[in-house]
Amino acid sequence: MGRTVASKKILIVDDDLRNIATIAQILLANGYQVLHAEDKDRAAKVALHSRPDLIICNAESKTLDALQLLKTVRQAPHMRGTSVLFLTDSAELLEAAPGVVGPKQYLKKPYTREQLTIAVQENLKYAPAKRKQL
Question: Which residues constitute the domain of residue 97?
């Protein structure tokens, strides 16, 4: 049985607390539970322990290798179906990793509240299907 919006957990990973606060405000207004991490070590620990339904990650973070975080999370059997949404100034970084990051897994900056909300909803809809495939 799937979780309701109110019980969906989303982990925000960004080294800028202002970005975390802005994204968290949007997510909380939409009824999601919010977790956050500012660096790669904490992000991996929070993700593996809390099992979020979605991870939103700044792909250009100075303290984080976003693709490495994705690989770390996907290595844990209970996390393989977890969706990751990358926020990026340039999709080139993610397009350099074909087969790792799909077109719905990133949102180009700057984005609007509505674009973020839609991207979150799309990724959360897709996550249960990915988990069933595993």
Answer: 5-133
